[in-house]
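name: query_chain
kind: protein
chains: 1
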Amino acid sequence: ISPAVTVSTKLIYSLNDEILIDACWAISYLSDGLNDKIQAVIESAVCQCLVDLLMHSSTSVQTPTLHSISNIVTGDDLQTQVVIASGALPALLSLLSSPKEGI
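structure:
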């Protein structure tokens, strides 16, 4: 999982929306599962970037980003706390008024 996390973490800073969307989906898939997979994603220091991407203007970016955040917070309390400490709650609150169904 480590090489895939490393590559995805680099791609998540892309300015190209298509690459960004694919990178966010990759992180979502990589963080789906046991706590050790979630921890590998957290240790890549990607949580703050994911929280920032929740406010992206494109719902096509927001959707996989939200999946990634959701997967991470299914981990243990400390893993969830990393997402909260990254400022996820205000970003999630703003998504509640999203015009896109399913966000």
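note: The first helix runs from residue 2 to 11.
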